[in-house]
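User: Structure tokens for both sequences below?

Assistant:
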Amino acid sequence: MITLRAIGILTAIALALHAGMTFYGDLVRPNFRASDLFSGEIPPDKAKLAAAGSLASVSWDGDLLANHAAAMAADVLHRPSAEAGGRASENKTAQAAVVAALKVSPIRPALWLTLGTLQAQAGETVTPAVKMSYLTGSVPIDVALSRVRTVTSSAAATDEEIKLLAQSDIRSALASRSRYEPLLVAAFVQATPQGKSLLLETTKVTDPRFNEILRRY
């Protein structure tokens, strides 16, 4: 009987702790998703990031981990340290947070692209992360355009599977060319030779007039 009471008390304590952590997680979880990183949303301030980080280090809440990692990445990408060493350290820390979130909740295409974007900033290989962003689901058009920029400006543009997948992103943007034409042109200007070829090959079939515009740059 004493053993059963002890088990009951321990179970009640565990449930209370879980409920408390869940409630606290709802309070401190950044209202910032990975897709917001690519749509120009401003990341939370560092105080809110620190509060969420204290819980994220012991949490298995996929949404909390993903939102916190995305906010950290946005902070690194939009508010980088003035020193090269600081930028490198912040990038590594943000990458670690993204990887931890993806281990718990891997079906997050925008978060995979976030990892690739951080890797690109650090001069690392982005192909695996970008490929996972395609294979784990669909994304909003803003994310798709950012993915096009990442693909066409990196070695990912040499991967045959990614090239086929990226064509879908490009065609989606071309469906609303009046809105996204400047971003596609900017992607072309920043692209590697392989990235330029990918954009030219896709637009030649899908939108010959826009293909002619790109060839002027």
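Moving on to the next sequence.
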Amino acid sequence: MSDLDLLTQSLARNVKRWRTERGFTLDTLAARAGVSRGMLIQIEQARTNPSLGTVVKIGDALGVSITTLLDYEQGPKVRIVPAGQVVRLWHTDAGSYSRLLAGAEAPGPLEMWDWRLMPGEGSSSDPHPTGTVELVHVTAGELTLTVDGADHRVPAGASASFEGDTPHTYANQGDVPMEMVLAVSVPPVH
């Protein structure tokens, strides 16, 4: 069985498991995630390989991380993510990217990301669920963090925290690549 087949089957099993645990019908989850009921049926029957954007929406709606939805290994409390298994969510031809390094449920989804933005590039995020908190630590260059329309400059060596339930953008308005580590904590779904 290929890695893609394992991930498709794990996603099917985990979406159904978390939907059932939350007491959501297919229609409820579809409405919360902004994904069609038909797509959810195909996902739960392991008949499709949805985009990462769709998986993110479903994870947010269920209150679990992408890592949890795609996890097919059951076992010890320590989980090592080899460099070759880091999930790249997006990238540009210029060299910008974001990579999901690790994730856990603690008590809601908790994710750690590695970001690189080339000069002049940026990435916008829709609001996350109420109570979401993000932490950033810039390791190179300078981040222009826009939260709810207000710009904040975060230079190398500095960190910032903010509520992620409003529109926000990460941008590099400088002349050198900007690199940061980002942690996202989403509250559990009740």
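User: Anything stand out in the second?

Assistant: The chain has a mean pLDDT of 87.
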